[in-house]
Write a structure and sequence with these properties.
alpha+beta; two-stranded antiparallel sheet; single chain; 73 residues; 3 helices; elongated; 42% helix
């Protein structure tokens, strides 16, 4: 699939076909995150920083599971 870069005011933009927005599960007003990878650019609706933070949090929760359980009581 080829997308054409267009002028949008003083910026440049792309129009994403419906098929792509459905696969990304995004609609008007949603945010997309752009990440540089060794293979090029990745476009995703998920915040990679948030995902990384959640991985760290899950590790802490696993490690201190018993202490967290006691605190929750």
């Amino acid at each position: 699939m080829v997308l054409k870069v267009r002028e949008v005011g003083n910026s440049l933009g792309l129009i994403l076909p419906t098929e792509i927005t459905q696969k990304l599960r995004v609609g008007a007003g949603d945010k997309l995150f752009v990440t540089e990878t060794p293979d090029g650019i990745k476009l995703t609706p998920y915040d990679p920083d948030f995902a990384e933070t959640m991985e760290v949090a899950e590790g802490v929760m696993r490690r201190y599971r018993n202490a967290l359980r006691k605190l929750a009581k």
